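User: Assemble these into one structure.

Assistant: Restating your components, then the assembled model:
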Amino acid sequence: MSLLVDLALWAIVVVLGLIAASRSQSLCIDAIRGGVRDFLQLLPRIAIGVIGSGYLAALLPQALIASWLGPNSGAVGLSLASLAGALTPGGPVVGFALATTALKSGAGAPQVIAYTIAWALFALQRVIIFEVPVMPPRVVWLRVLVSLPLPFLGAWMAMVVGKP
Amino acid sequence: MSLRRTRSPFDWSAAVIAALAISAGVVVYLRDGQERFLAILLEDVGLFGTMLPRILAGCLMGAFVTLLLPREAVARWVGADSGITGILIATVVGAILPGGPFTIYPVAGALLIAGADAGAACAFVISWTLLGYARAIVWELPFFGVDFVTWRILFSLPLPILAGLAARIISKFVMKGEGAA
């Protein structure tokens, strides 16, 4: 399954690359150079996140997480997970590393989905550094307001479907 | 791609997580011994190795789409009179437009200036945060695996559309005096 995903990914990359090259070879080379530079810049962050999450998982009190955010923690667990997601500082490495750690330590899948969605929508650092400066404040508040129910909706769908 | 901001490979948020990771590693070493420390290290280095080709693919894909997507046309498609189609288009574009927060929010701001309404702008930003494939492939997939991410994205599909419609309704009722609907 994951080999299939890898093949599909690279097939898309090759097709996009061919289209880009047919438009302009020099632009295509620029794009490849930019992509590789992004890749190299990401490497240290991801390495730290992946290796660190393994050690953090070994340390987290699993019984505590299982009872607070476990599959049977209900609406309180969902609210806790959403709040934790909104308050998680830092970039994607921090958010996803903490979420996988929680999942490894016995948190329920809907709770982790609520956490991931809340983190994606509300991460304070991103809203303050990137969103507020370039968007009209009215639209930012409106965006945050209509996003409030979304972590619960996502988790609720996960519970109804019973996956993953 | 003048909106692109070069970012250093190592900033304060990376430093915080590095400090956390190193302290956690030290505690595991002291508490559980060298054998367990090395076992976790080996497992996670292996995981990191399998992630590398995916991360590279995600980065290249983002670079090519940035090159190929006609950004000017986007503003036309999500204008004030675009109705529910505009919200759907904003959702799809938000999901496929690559780049970090430093490219997405300026595009959203530009969309608003170019005449997109608040509902479409909200759907666009929310769709990028929840459905953006670049983030899902580069970050989420390696950490969670294919199964979890697929379901998470399936459950997230309707959310930008619902939120965009809600934003449009609220901005019509609450902010109708401001003339920007």
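Residues 1-7 of chain B have pLDDT under 50 and may be disordered.
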